[in-house]
Amino acid sequence: MTLLSQRSRNASAEFALVEDFFLRSSSGEARNAEEACDFSFGNPHEMPLAGLVEALARNLQPQNPQWFAYKISEPEPRAFIAKALSSELGLDFEPEDIALTHGAFAAIALAFCLVLDAGDEVIIPVPGWFCYASMLRAADLVPVKVGLSEPDFDLDLEAIDAAITPRTRMVVVNSPHNPTGRVYSQEQLQALADLLDSASNRIGARIWLLSDEPYRRIRFNHTPFVSPAALYPWTLIDYSYGKVLLAPGQRLGYLAISPRLPAEQRAELQGATFSVQMSMGWTFPSALMQYSVASLENVSIDLDALATKRDLMLHSLEQWGYQMVHPEGTFYLWGEAPGGDALRFIETLAARSVFVLPGTLFERRRHFRISLTANIEMIERALPIFRDAIG
Predict the structure, then answer these.
(1) Which cofactor does it need (predicted)?
(2) What distance in Å separates the CA atoms of residue 172 and residue 89, rounded to the nearest whole number?
(3) I need a surface site. Which of 11, 162, 301, 362 has the fewest CB within 10 A?
(4) Longest dimension (CA), the chain
């Protein structure tokens, strides 16, 4: 007999491998050692960006008695984001299209809550972010895992179409993609939009698209980015500032409604976000983060330095025989473990204080993920260990 709800048990089962790795694996404490080379999660390993610190310090000083009062999605940051996003994506967002959230986590949860009902099916990419499935289970929704096409990890449109059933109500697309770094082309996304439109007509119900875009501004070599919101009206966008600021502990994000959504449905969603966010447990960002939105617009990790780290690791690993995907965005590298056994590979590295994520957390036993948020000193110390690990 258990006291836990069925949805809690389902969510825990989906997240078990990640929880075990994060909390109970032998590498957990070792990753924090001074000599460790930690390439596991997208955490900072250098001091915070000066622009971030300055923005927070400037807005920390109260300007009136209500400075730290309850804050919902405040008018000024909503208007600022709507204007900036319109310029960035070439779409006409209104302030009412923007729901400020406690990071992209909350934006994704808000999207699920706004348009989905218990038992609805949501197609998610595999490999992909390891929280989609557990979040869906916690909301009494059904994750349907569809593999990306290998070896390039593009969208597999035939597989997506085959996975659609009368209960399908959403497809999640993550571009730039975690963990592979792929950025999907306009042609791929237009084909997906056409597929979803046709499938919606076939099943007699609208299929939504959630465009998960927290790495949108982290792209290499001027790789173009197109949001599905420009191609498929029934799109919701989630975004997080934590990636480009490399400050995931300072929670700031938003959910945006595609301006191409028909006016009646757009107004209905705009009118529902406040009450749903309240009902979900106050998922608005803190007052300090909302005050800082405008100041943070042009603050970013050094993309040139990030590209230098990417190129150094790619060149080194490939010359030693590793099979790697060349990322067009994000701060990750994705590759095949020597011998095809990721768990054995990460144990070999961990024995010499180098830590990466096994592909098993992404449902791929042969692969591993490296986070380039490690500093250059870590990379230089780790490269000889990667060389030795391939035998």
Answers:
(1) pyridoxal 5'-phosphate
(2) 19
(3) 162
(4) 64
How far is residue 16 from each of residues 12, 55, 147, 202, measured CA to CA in Å?
6, 38, 20, 36
Task: Give the strand pairing for 235-240 and 253-257.
Answer: antiparallel
Q: Which two tokens stand for residue 267?
A: 């107004």
pLDDT in tens, 326-363: 999 999 999 999 999 999 999 999 999 999 999 999 99
Q: How far apart are the first and last CA of the chain?
A: 49
- The confidence score (pLDDT) of residue 26 equals 66
What single letter denotes the amino acid at residue 87? Answer: S
Could you give the 3-state DSSP secondary structure of residue 233?
coil
Q: Please write the tens of the pLDDT for every residue from 156-186.
A: 999 999 999 999 999 999 999 999 999 999 9
Q: Please answer whether residues 69 and 291 qualify as being in contact, where contact means their C-beta atoms are separated by less than 8 angstroms.
A: no
Contact yes or no for 211/240 (Cβ under 8 A): no
What is the reported pTM? 0.97
